[in-house]
Amino acid sequence: MEREGSDVANKGRKFEDGTRGRLLRKAIIASNDSSRRFTKLSVDICIFLASRGGRKMLSSLFYKDLQTLAEKVAKYSGRTKVPTKGAMSLALKSISEAGLYTYEIETPYNKSKHGDKRGVKLTLID
Q: DSSP of 53-103, one letter per residue?
């Protein structure tokens, strides 16, 4: 049993106060809320997005299409079947409604990397 002032308890508080900790806590609260539709795929996407970046979490991410994002989430979460574009779109909309990320379809700023086609832009709400 850990004492309240121990290093382990303090590390837990530091993580929860950080951006990743707040995002994961909000995702768990949203998944337990019966008034909104927050699926397991939505939770998987939130955990995947929280893991992006090194020491500092990325505040904005761009993917060339929903299929690319679906493949990355499926590989990260260990899913055998890649989610469909419709399921991904619904999950991203529910993440947006929960106030975690904004989900937009727009043209990329870095056209040399992503091309001229519109893609999925996710921006952290904090």
A: BSSSB-SEEEES-HHHHHHHHHHHHT-SSPPPHHHHHHHHHHHHHTTSEEE
